Every structure is written in C-alpha cells, then in structure tokens.
# Entry
Amino acid sequence: MDIQHKKVSESYTIMSEIVLPNDTNTLSNLMGGRLMHWMDIAAVIVAQKHSNKPCVTVSVDNVNFHNPIRLGNVITIEGKVTRTFNSSMEIYLSVWGQDLIKQEKYLSNEAYFNFVALDSLGKPTQIPGIIPETDKEKEMYEDALRRRQLRLLLAGKLKLEDEVALKSILFPENK
Ligand SMILES: CC(C)(COP(=O)(O)OP(=O)(O)OC[C@H]1O[C@@H](n2cnc3c(N)ncnc32)[C@H](O)[C@@H]1OP(=O)(O)O)[C@@H](O)C(=O)NCCC(=O)NCCS
# Structure
C-alpha cells in the first residue's frame, strides 16, 4: 500500500513549560530527568502527528546538555521529523531556555529521539515518508541515514552484510 508523504512542517511541534520548584535540583536548576520527560512528550506528539498511529520511543541518542535552565525560566522544546524509514522515524529536538524578565534566550539541549509506529496488534507498521523542503531539512535528512546506521550497529540490529560494510568504513584498519 502506497502511503502519502508529508512535509516536515506538518508535524512540527513547539511545547513550552515554566520551571517550577518541584522540577529543580538542589542548585535550583531544572533536573535532567524532568527535561527528558518533557522532551519525550514533545517528541511523541511529533511522531503521532506525522504517522497518525500510536508511537513508542525505541531509542534516544545524542542528548547534549549545553546550559542549565534556571528556576522560573521558560523552556521551549521544538521538534521535527528529520527522516522516516519503514515503521520508524528520527525526530530532532532542540530545547531553549528563556528568562522572560531579562529577555534572554539560550540553547540548552539537543537530542535525537527515535520512534516506532504500531498497528492495532502492537506491531511496527509502515508510516508516511517525509518531504524535506528547506536546505536545513534536506541536510538533516541526508545525515539521518548515517545516524541510523550507527545507532542500529550499536544496538546490534544491523543486517550482517550492512554491519560488515559499515564497520569497514568506521574501522578501515581492521579490514
Ligand atoms: C519498538 C519495538 C516495537 C520494536 O520492535 P522490534 O521487534 O524490535 O521491531 P524491529 O526490529 O522490526 O524494528 C522496528 C523498527 O525499529 C527500528 N529500531 C529497532 N531498534 C532501534 C533502535 N535502537 N534505534 C532506532 N531504531 C530502532 C528498526 O530499525 C525498525 O525500523 P524500520 O521499520 O523503520 O526499518 C519494540 O522494541 C518495543 O516495543 N520496545 C519498547 C518500546 C517502549 O515501550 N518505549 C517506551 C518506554 S522507554
């Protein structure tokens, strides 16, 4: 069955939260675990907007904590699909902190979340393809294939011939 492709902009999502005392550590900064929870929610909204199926997180990679987010600041999470495969998709999230009083905005986190769409039996199911439009979307689309190969290699999920080919690129000295 041919499933129609969708644009990146169709599932683009922005989610904001204000950091309250119960969200912080003893330094009055947002706790990493709380942030990951919010990021997972933003990412599943993107995934389900794109696929119109229930989606589950299958892996998270490249989480980078650049700057702490202070108590009382606002966080804004922006999420977009970078590339889809068969049942899975990679979603890029950027997290911005904002001090509304000082009128400062800063990049706090970035991460790639990977989701799988499920059918009514809970099995992975085909999702629509993605249409990258801007130069940045096209660049992220191209790079996503390399990231997928690497993460599947690390997860021990590549087909043997693909694993051999990728290892020969990554570790040419072991040929
Ligand atoms: C996600 C899940 C349904 C995949 O089932 P599975 O039997 O491993 O399915 P497959 O091996 O056929 O993989 C399905 C897709 O996931 C991808 N995948 C598998 N492991 C992956 C990983 N570590 N990272 C990224 N993608 C992965 C596969 O490449 C495949 O993608 P494709 O269909 O686009 O080619 C299953 O592992 C699961 O239910 N996991 C628990 C999910 C969950 O509960 N998450 C929330 C709590 S943390």
User: Anything to note?
Assistant: The mean pLDDT is 93. Helices lie at 32-51, 135-154, 160-170. The domain at 6-131 is CATH 3.10.129.10 (Thiol Ester Dehydrase; Chain A).
